[in-house]
Amino acid sequence: MSGSLKLQKKQQDRDLEMHYESSYHQSSLSSVSRRSYAAYVSGHGHKTSGKKKVEKKLSVIPKKDKSSYLAVDKENEVIGYVVPVFRSSHLATQDLMETQEEVKEEGVGYVVMRNLFSRETDFKMRTEKKTREITMRESADRLVLGRKMHEREEFQKKMNPDSLTHPPEFIVKPRGQTVWEGKSVKLHCTVAGWPKPRVAWYKNNVVIDVKAHPEKYITESQYNMHSLEIINCDFSDTAEYRISALNMKGESSAFAPVIVKRFKDGEKVIERPHGYSPEYGVTFNTTIIDKFGVSFGREGETMSLGCTVIVYPNIKRYQPEIVWYRDGVVLSPSKWVNMHWSGERATLTLVHLNKEDEGLYTLRVNTKSGFDTHSAYVFVRDADVEEEGVPVAPLDVHCHDANKDYVVVTWKQPAVEGSSPIMGYFIDRCEVGTHHWAQCNDTPVKYARFPVTGLIEGHSYSFRVRALNKVGVSRSSRASDPVAAMDPADRARLRGPSAPWTGMIKFTEEDHTVGVVPDPPTDLAVTEATKSYMVLSWKPPVQRGHEGVMYYVEKCLVGTDTWQRVNTGIPVKSPRFALFDLAEGKSYSFRVRSCNSAGVGEPSEETEETTVGDRLDLPSVPGPVVPTRNTDSSVVVTWGASKEVKNLVGYYIEVSVSGSNVWVPCNNKPVKGTRFVCHGLNTGDKCVFRVKALNAAGYSESTSESEVCLVKSGIAVPSPPTGVILLESARDYMVLGWQAPAKTGGADIRGYYLDYRTVKDGATSKWHELNLQAVNATSYKVTDLKENVIYQFQVRAFNQAGISEGSIPSIPLECKEWTVAVPGPPHGLHVLEVRKDSLVLLWEPPTFNGRSPVTGYYVDFKEENGKWRCVQERSTKMTYMKAFGLQEGISYRLRVYAKNLAGVGGPSKATDAILAQTRPGINEIMVDVDDDGVISLIFECSDLKEGSQFVWSKNYKALTDTSHLTIQTVGGKSRAIFNAPSLEDLGIYSCVITNTDGVSASYKLTEEGLKRLLDISHDHKFPIIPFKSEMAIELQEKGRVRFWAEVAKFTSNCQVEYVFNDNIITEGKKYIMNFNKSTGIIELFMDLLEVTDEGTFTFNLVDGKAKGRTSLVLIGEEFAELQKKSEFERAEWVRRQGPHFVEYLSFEVTPECDVHLKCKVGNIKPATEIAWFKDGIEIEEEDEDAKKIRKSPEELTFDIGKISKKDAGVYEVKLKDERGKDKTLLNLTEAGYQAVLNEVFRVIANSSTELKVMSTEHGIILYSFVVHCIEDLRVGWLHKESKISHSDRVQCGVTGEQLWLKINEPTEKDKGKYAIDIFDGKGGVKRVIDLSGQVWEEAFEEFKRLKAAAIAERNRARVVGGLPDVVTIQEGKSLNLTGNVWGDPVPEVSWIKNERQLVCDEHYSLKFEHGKFASITIAAVTTADSGKYALQVKNKYGIEAAEFTVSVYFPEDEAEKKE
Description:
Blueprint: H1 3-17, H2 23-44, H3 91-96, H4 108-120, H5 132-159, E1 166-172, E2 177-180, E3 185-194, E4 198-203, E5 206-207, E6 217-222, E7 225-230, E8 239-247, E9 250-261, E10 276-277, E11 282-283, E12 285-289, E13 295-298, E14 303-312, E15 321-326, E16 329-330, E17 337-341, E18 345-350, E19 359-367, E20 370-381, E21 395-400, E22 406-412, E23 424-431, E24 437-439, E25 449-453, E26 460-468, E27 483-484, H6 488-495, E28 522-529, E29 533-539, E30 550-557, E31 563-565, E32 576-580, E33 587-596, E34 599-603, E35 610-611, E36 625-631, E37 634-639, E38 648-657, E39 664-665, E40 675-678, E41 686-695, E42 698-699, E43 709-710, E44 722-729, E45 734-739, E46 751-760, E47 763-764, E48 768-769, E49 779-782, E50 790-799, E51 802-803, E52 813-814, E53 827-832, E54 839-844, E55 856-863, E56 869-870, E57 880-883, E58 891-900, E59 903-904, E60 914-915, E61 926-929, E62 935-940, E63 950-954, E64 957-958, E65 965-970, E66 973-978, E67 987-993, E68 1000-1005, H7 1007-1021, E69 1027-1035, E70 1041-1047, E71 1055-1060, E72 1063-1064, E73 1071-1076, ...
Parallel strand pairs: 2-9, 13-20, 94-101
Antiparallel strand pairs: 1-3, 3-7, 4-5, 4-8, 6-7, 8-9, 10-11, 12-14, 14-18, 15-16, 15-19, 17-18, 19-20, 21-22, 22-25, 23-24, 23-26, 26-27, 28-29, 29-32, 30-31, 30-33, 33-34, 33-35, 36-37, 37-40, 38-39, 38-41, 41-42, 41-43, 44-45, 45-49, 46-47, 46-48, 46-50, 50-51, 50-52, 53-54, 54-57, 55-56, ...
Helix pairs in contact: 2-4
């Protein structure tokens, strides 16, 4: 670049640094400026030394090369959060981008100016060279000139006696803007300086003559606010605009670029976005409401974005065109995206969110009159990982360069790598129509790009990617769109239009190329080279015949002449090939041969030497990160672009709360700009940011942490004031009042400016300034007016950010004298301390009092749509009132009347609607009394804005007398300290925090409250150290005495003084002292209590100015008893030095009623002698009782078992060794024995079960089981609370462990409650059962049944005996058998043979005598008499049969058996 251009470039950069401009406007300006310069170069050429004029023809950019229609920065990358520029309005700038690379170093202002001149006349640039000597001389001259100017300025400062004057200074600088062609734009700025500076506007350093072009430019200058309005912008208005301010103290300039974008090339430009539609004869006005905002989703969720669109006028059968964009790219319906237009509401539904869905979403509504848009960002967070520490899924998987058996898969790295860096990626493929995913690579690839080979021609595939680190593998990315494995020419042919059918079939001769070996491929090159693979590409041969052609790839290691075929098995079909398993660091050459059925052709030209290694380096670290406050939940982050980077994919931004060292990604999809708005932050957090760049090779290092940025909204211009009313009117002046702006813009309102205009016959004049100096109050007296002239007024508020729009003009007001008697309306109404049930209203007195002074005020209120009601019955003289009894969630309006002796005046302007609610985070004023007794009021606020201040008042009037209160404010806490509290300080104290939405509170200090605070203050001034526990005494081991007390509250400086009988004692042999300041326990130890120790012990505490005292009086019987216990404890300690009893001999009764004697021993050695005695006689080892002795290391036992009188006696155990001796004794005679029995009785009584009922044939039995029973156990039975006496019918007794009561032959008199009373050693244990009702019925019925069954059993017929089981008899003899029979009544008797009853005849003789004997006689038995016989008896109680067998034999048979 020439020297003149460099100088101009430097000057331009210096100018740009002097004014504020957002990154968005800078980037947009640079982008369009470069495009404008490219247009100039294309149209006119560019002359430089050594280069010829070059003509460039504009051409349409190919579809895949078309850039996004978002504003771009200096690196031609999209900036996040800019409303897109759409194709329909920007075709010209698309075509101009082809040549923008040639002019990247050109200055922005220079290019804009030159483009402007190039539209009017041909412009030629002359470039001259300067020698180094000339350059150095010019530089020296400039240094000398600068030094002289500095000396002149210092001289003028000394000579200037007026310290009030100062040079011009831009408080608010104009901001650059981008507008559509046909729209108007307005530039604003605020200039301070005295004397008042004169300003001039420049366009590309040429003064703008407003008078010469009134239809084009309008300038305004009011209250140091200056503006330039450019009407109906066209493309030639794209320029850099400068405002220059000049006064006697100097000159200052500020710059603002304006970019004008064309709506549609070749179309007549009309007003946009809403213009007249000749087709329908109306102008469509579009309004978008219920807009979707910044949204947050998580992978896998479903999200809907929507807006309500109002198009006016509404014409039947006409609907606007609804278009959705993501990052400037038009969206189409798919399985991931659903769109719906109901005629009123446009909705976009994102099904199963993925990180690819993150971005800037824009709704564009196109009508016949233009368009309207709304944009907001959608953030998509990662789904929860299955295993902690693994990376999240990659994103944006796409397929490129698809051929017959080859495709290149690319993706973007995820924002979160997990607990360790990503080591590589796995690529999976799935053939369309199946659900089987196959892994394509065995070794993870580090590049975000991989060639997949081995595809089947004609098949379609989808791909997905997984990331890998040391912990594991991530989830899979979203699958790519399907891609077909086919020749690109075939794909284009399938997509193109087919030839029309002509009805003719044309025959041609066979081409002579059939059967010809193909020519070598051409343009062989290495397109990709990494450590893992290389990719070759070539063009198919021209001569290849009609049949398909395939290829063989050969490689050669540099330095050798050996060519090796790579794909020996199967030739490849695509003119692309990926080579793997190459040696890293080695150099190779490659060539390709074509083949078909005719043979293999000659090799192609070999490639240049290519070394195996990465050609793409990691990006360099981005530039410094600068965060800027934006809103309460977002921060604008800008950074410098990576200087050394190829094929940049984008940037990831991370955020961390300062000090936490926990980094969270702000975006999960890379952004290409150098500016990003990070949303979703917590208000009040102090955050730091860092950025890392990425390309296909991986991530760069993260930048260093940014400066800490507080998440808080920035300041803005306030909203306009409201409610301009007339407060007083006279012949030549009026007093106006208004309400402060509802929104302060986050900064204090610094004042107000007023405008006026006259009204005559309905026509209004231009607005004129009223006051040059700002008004601080919400009222103003307008003087020098003309009587009977009608005026209108408007008010503007201003803060640090600038001046607001004008308020709604007041109604026309006539300047004339008021003659009414009643006062005018109060003004300046404003509300403080809004809570859910109350608020405080403040107002200013009326400026017009009427004929007499104002004596009071009335306050009215009403609900939003209700009627006005008076708050109080009597008027108040105060200019404030607290309204109670509001309903939460209801909006109220209030107004005030003033009254005097003549009556009540008119109402004030009503307040805006005020919602009765307690906002979260609002605190009340708290009263505090510190340790020094200082009384203060404290108000805290956690939502302080920049520049916020605590303003205290008393009775809602500003504090002017500081003798009573001292205000101290630190951070978000303000303290109002009472210097000398008295009755003069009674009143209502309120605190308002400026620069907030009315954060305020109050506290009413009453006389009673002041008295209570003064009492607390006195206690704090003269504090008493509190004791949690007063002094107490405790006996310890060896008889040691411990005096102790516990202090409740003290500091580390607390000291203790130990006193006995008013004498200070110190630590020594007799006294041991301790003060544990961690627990607050004070201790005094004495080993022995002597007679001289009788008296009073005291602990005196001193802690600063606080004191404490606790005492213990130890005299008389109390001292003697303590001394005795001390001596006993010391003796006990001496006893425990040898073998001793820890627990003396005692007895215990087990649940089984076994009695054990036991004692616990301590300090026992194997040599210690242990002896048991009974009645003074030692139990020897051979004695029977020695078997009952048990010994363990800590316990001795004597198992008596079930006790009886023989076990009574005196038991003794003795211990003895060289260290000492001890003994224990247990007397089990008389009272001792009875005590054991009582314990046994207790166990038995408590083991008894509940009474149960059992019926027998004799009567009813009540019983209970116990674990054991002894003779001495006293058991009593009661019936209906009366003791039961023993008789023949009612008997009680014990059987084993069962205690029972038998009631023989029970009757109705035996019903009632029965109880058993078992003695338990003290009283008795009762078990009760109610033998009545169903229990009695069931028992009595069972008794009767059993009794009847017993009678039947006794009297039933049965064979008592006399009959054998088997009878053997010789044939011919007689058989006689007799059976004994019993039964009452006498049973019937019958004889049965083989189940047939016998009758008496000559062969059988049957007899039954005396009712007891039944006999049978069989004469001359034969074999026919053999068989089974039975004697059967029967009466009314039953039947029984006695069976026997008769066997008849021949004599000879018996003889044969004997032989």
